[in-house]
Amino acid sequence: MWQMVDGEQIKQEEHEMNNVQGWIEEYGSRREMQMYPPETLVRLLKGDYIDGKPLKLDSKAILDVGFGDGRSLEFYAAMGMDVFGTEVDESICKRTRLALNNDSIMLKPGTAVLGRFI
């Protein structure tokens, strides 16, 4: 399959590979990983403004597609959730696994292609 990228016609597979390589370089070049989840996420999951009641998340499962540096994964786990994540390459998963040091968080490489992942 062919597609247009920046005015050039390239193969879909080549474009996807360039994107994957870009993410590998982005996360591989970071010296330290920021491990604080976004404030909006914390307010959403820890707040009580949804129906005025705290959310009950114990034993709920969450899939973080494109977890990046993993900054939200520990937060989900600390709230009692079963945490799963997917990123475009195993090297990103491995680096995040090492940084988290939490065997209960399951990370796998995968991509969202035609509605499918992993």
Mean pLDDT: 78
- Give the proportion of residues in helices: 25-40%
Estimated radius of gyration: 17 Å
- Terminus-to-terminus distance: 21 Å
Report what the structure shows.
With 118 residues, the chain is α/β, with parallel strands linked by helices. The chain has 4 helices and 5 strands, in the order E-E-H-H-E-H-E-H-E. Strands 3-4-5 form a 3-stranded parallel sheet. Strands 1-2 form a two-stranded antiparallel sheet.
Concise summary:
The chain is α/β, with parallel strands linked by helices and 118 residues long. It has helices spanning 12-28, 39-46, 73-78, 90-100; strands at residues 2-5, 8-11, 61-65, 82-87, 106-109.
Tag the structure with descriptive keywords:
single chain; 118 residues; alpha/beta; three-stranded parallel β-sheet; two-stranded antiparallel sheet; 4 helices
What's the SSE blueprint?
Layout: E1 2-5, E2 8-11, H1 12-28, H2 39-46, E3 61-65, H3 73-78, E4 82-87, H4 90-100, E5 106-109
Parallel strand pairs: 3-4, 4-5
Antiparallel strand pairs: 1-2
